[in-house]
Amino acid sequence: MKNKELITELSNRLEWNSQEVTDMLDSFCSIVGTHLIENDTICLPDLGNFEVKKKADRVSVNPVNGKRYLVPPKLVAVFKPSTALKAKLKEITDNE
Amino acid sequence: MNNRLTIQEIATLLSVSTGKSTQDAEKFLREFVAVVSVGVLSDRVVKIKGLGTLKILLVEDRESIHVNTGERILIPAHYKYSFIPDTELKELVNRPFSIFETTEINDSESFPDLEVSLEDEPESESESDDEALVVSVGPSKENKPEIQRAAETSLDLLKEILEETPTDNNPVVEEEVTGNPLTDVLDNDAHVDNEPEELNSVLPSNESVDIAKVISSYYGYESENQVSSSNTHMTSVKYNHYAAAPAKKKRRKRSFGKSLLYLLIIGALGLFFLGLFFYFQSKEVKNILPIMVESVPQLEEIQIATPDSIAKDSVQIKSSPETLPITPSTPSTASLYLDTIVIKSGDRLTLVSQKYYGHKLFWVYLYLENKDAIGNPNHVPIGTSILIPIPQKYNIDANQKVSLDKAAALQTQILNEE
Questions:
Q1: Contacting residues for B386 by C-beta, under 8 A, at least 6 apart
Q2: Which of B54, B85, B97 is opposite residue A73, by nearest beta carbon?
Q3: pTM of the full structure
Q4: Interface confidence (ipTM) of the complex
């Protein structure tokens, strides 16, 4: 599902025009971003949580030339799917 | 910070930013969740611009070992969610750490080395102090035997000199006593006058240096009387000593090391003076000896062979043609013979050969030259006078193999004859 399809689907369901949905979606994303910076967790029931995780620095080796690189620590936005979403995923696996 | 934002809170924020009502915002969020969950399940991928991509990935079945039982189990194929944030969100979130970049590591720049080097720094400083002390003490220990010997031989002499020298020397010595914190050392010094050998062996290296210093200062006065040029040296030595004395009073590590250095310098100067003194003394002795011997013409022949100290030199000197005129022998034989010696108890032809020609093999030429007098080369009678031929006569050269081989062949021939 692409972003456009998502917007059209949402506009159909909410009976809003696509512009309203686009604005709402953009502002939602910016809010998520700003709050992730502040180390907040965004909880969307039945979907999951958006969190920030810190990845520690590490040494990686280029297998081709054997050079070693120090990869700096970084903050990564992660999505933790809710149990409900995972359960649905299990249904797919079982159905196959 | 570390807050959990629920749908209601997000809706409030959304309504503020978009101008819609919180109910609309909340409704939007719920629909959003529903659409995304449906979309990801149906299409297995949902792309949300500004947030990221939510995907469903297939994890293939794999074998594993049960942690508790150790049995091999097959983990069946299953699906998992994967969220990849957009670069926009990624950079936004990672802004605090954005200054870091992936850098290549050289082997020498590895972290353990850095830590080790940091830890070593304070230790190395303290070690260097210790080393300085040890190093400064070391040479003094090496000098100790020399100092001992010097002290033994010269202390009596110095004492006499001290007693003989006018009173203006005494204040200096007293000042040295007061300026020295190691007063017990000076007590020892006083005893050293009586029992030099024992105390010198007991004294630590530092104290022996002190003795050397005292000796040097004493000797300085001695030389002052004799040589005017050494006067300046002596004053410099005194100056060094006085400069070192107050520093030592602080008894701090650094100043102690410095004073040790001064002491070493003073000791070295003292040794230098002593060395000069003994050198000149021995030279005088050497000069005196020949004169005495020359005054007794009968001893001429023996004199060259007997003194042990001159013997080593004489081997080289005799072999060189320059000294030939010096050797006291009759002018007629001087060109053909190095020397004439009288065999004493313990002398052998080989030893004489070793002494004059540098190799014992050349005894054969001595034998050939004195065949009439010697008879049996293995038994030369004491008192036999033998002539030492010049090396050129038989091409004697201890460094040439040809000459040695020739002598060896001659030796076997002579020995076979008997």
A1: B340, B341, B342, B343, B349, B352, B366, B369, B370, B373, B374, B380
A2: B97
A3: 0.39
A4: 0.88
